[in-house]
Description:
heterotrimer; B: about 280 residues; mainly alpha; MetI-like fold; 13 helices; globular; C: about 375 residues; alpha+beta; Rossmann fold; 2 domains; six-stranded mixed β-sheet; 10 helices; 20 strands; about 25% helix; about 35% strand
Amino acid sequence: MNTFIKTVYAALVYAFLYFPLVVMGVYSFNASKYSIAWKGFSTTWYLKLLGNTQLLDAALHSLTIAFFSEPWPPLSEPLQLWPCTATVSPGEKSCTDSCMS
Amino acid sequence: MANKKIFRSFSIGLVVCWMIAFAVIPNILVLTASFLSRTDSQFLTMPLTFDGYDQLFTPLIAGIVMRSLGLACMVTVTCLLLGYPFAWILARAPKKHRHLLIVMLIIPFWTNSLIRTYALIAILNTSGLLNKALMTMGLIETPLRILYTKSAVLIGLTYTLLPFMVLPLYAAIEKLDPRLREAARDLGASRLASLLKIELPLTQSGIIAGSMLVFLPALGMFYVPDILGGAKSVLIGNFIRDQFMIARNWPFGSAASIFLTLIMIVMLSLYAWRTTRTRQGGRL
Amino acid sequence: MTPPQTTPPCGLIAVQSVSKYFGEDIALSNLDLTINQGEFLTILGPSGCGKTTLLRLLAGFEAPSSGRITLEGKNILGIPPEDRPVNTVFQSYALFPHMTVFENVAFGLRMKNTPVREIPERVTEALRLVKLNGFSKRHPHELSGGQQQRVAIARAIVNDPLMLLLDEPMSALDSRLRKNLQMELKHLQRKLGITFVLVTHDQEEAFSMSDRIVVMDEGELMQVGTPREIYEEPANMFVARFVGEINVFSGRVINRGQEQLNIDVNKTVCTVKNKGGFEQGQKVRILLRPEDMRIETVRDLDADPELRKDFALGGYFRGRVDETVYKGATYDVYTTLASGKSLVITEFFNEDDEDVYFQPGDEVAISWVQGWEVVLPDGE
């Protein structure tokens, strides 16, 4: 088999796997809040992250759960989503809402 | 000597307790729940009933089950078609590159699959990166509607489960003696004949293992269809989740869970039967 | 250098100026070789000499970097292994583990679309030839090493190839099994008339089976000839040393006569047959196999003047016995000469005297059978 074809194929598969990660990484610096359009480089979101205690708490929860959960991640996802079903009072934002804002 | 025994008993005991506490007991709870009733104020209550299972045998559920099985099959086939050549390339790569290539395969897996799935939204959206790229290249004129269709779910599941297919395949292909392909060619086999008659049968164990590791999760995953498929896409996983979280019909949800578990048990039994049979038939 | 070859009666394969490189590595260097129809040819050499590479070129798994190979006059460059009328028996046998013995042997026939009704007959015949009748239904992992090897052979010969290539087929077997198989392989080859090309590093194996031997080292042909030619008339030092034991004497030609050469070896004058090609004053090496040498105790020579005269004809050396090693049919005498040189002499048991005659410490005189020596130029 042609080494060139092999390399191209492997590269494409790796690109497929990594592209969403790259996209996420790049867009975490996007100044725009809602649209895909690039509005300029910005680290506001990271600053907001550090200031958001609710998110940080949730992150800690996730870490704790991951530490104790079964070795098979797909089965542990339900456990991770469990906190988001907790009833919230009208004023509080639930954690999924926080993620979206 | 005695220390070894104590250590061994302790380790096994610990794992067994764990399994009982977090695997066996929850399953028993779900099984019990499936036979209970519900009221407006309580999730689960007596009396025991078959209501949960009754609600299961409707055309609606049958449709959901068929769709889920169909989708899981498509995901498995896609992963197999994409993954087999890839695993082959990995297994036949020069030794010094191999470990690096495998680590590179697993790294995306370390990131949260939930986040990666959200990233797919940005890519598959009508104004997303994929459509933008295709339009700038002039391949299409109007953006493709991928997001919130079955295709998006297929792409998302394939994306998440591909490493599960590649790794067992890689293991099986690596064990394959390259001399066998040469022997086949020497005896007159074309590349295709060699693939069909020698290489595929001998990597069968990898194919079956990889397929199991993709098919079963594909049946049960609900967050990928949730995020990428929109409200329209109702599969077994979503359905069960909805019963527990939204409709608060726990007996029904439990019954559906048990049903899903039964499907998985059947699949795994077939797998076990198949692998013991082939192991007796000749070293594979 | 192209060593002299016997004129082939009927060349099947011609290897012409073939070289093979793997990057910087020179595997084969400008080889010229003719393989004759119906012969049993062995390629003999140490690990890494290129013998397996040559085999793979013949099979079609590699292509030469330069030069060409023809089969029955036609260039086979670019013809893949599956289209060549050549079959290989691999070193590791490479039997298909998921198929029965029958299926393994039938594989080649099926690939060539042989009519289905012919297959059982031909497979059974092939298995019979390798003495494995009754093993059809077994799987490779149920067979011993020797049996697996026979299946590999059957799988190859069932296709009636023009040439059979064997890559160190017996390296994994114990010596008794090996000897049996060697004989069987030779008989099989004679019976089938197929050209066999075998690759090995085992000199004894090469000698017991081959019509001709090709000795290789570091990608070059060292010598091509019958086993006898290789052993008794080595063309160079490598062949002399690689095949069997050898004693080497360095010296200089003193004078050159019609029939004889006088060579000065460390002040001893040796008279050898003049087979041509040497100049006066040239540095040469005299090669003698252990069994070509003669040894007598000084005691015996002193006692028998006739023996002494006969012994001293061509020249002789004085030395002392270090030890004797019993080998069963023969015994080896290790001696050291006055000059410090060590020699090995092989003696057969004398029917008159069954005991090992020479004792450590004996003063001895060493000579050789006139005409059995080989003289080579000392170019190294």
